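If you are new to this repository, start here. Below is one unmodified record pulled from the training split, so you can see the exact layout before writing a loader.
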Amino acid sequence: MTSSATQGIKTVLHPVSDLATAKTIYAALLGVEPQTDSPYYVGFEAEGQHIGLVPGGGPQGMTGPVAYWHVPDIEAKLAELTAAGATVKEPANEVGGGRLVATVTDADGNVLGLIQDR
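And here is the target side for that same chain:
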């Protein structure tokens, strides 16, 4: 297999149409208040997982939940995935705090997210 294994799925982002209602529902589901609460992103930390709410699918145009695999080297993993037949949807870009994110689609059009924390 390849040399850059993942660290598992630790982040799932959900596009939402009504941020206030979604925030209330996810707080009830997770049993915690959000750690990040802004008009463009609400994030919860629960049991080692990060659950994010993205109004209107955000600039990446999400239409459904996206699971993000945490990886030690996002560029290496992108190269491995594209060599295996995946297509880059969103190239690696920094979203703040040294965090890099990217998305690819598999052969069936499923979106796979990648995150690297520096």
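Two things worth knowing about this chain: Residues 88 and 116 are 16 Å apart (CA to CA). The first helix runs from residue 19 to 30.
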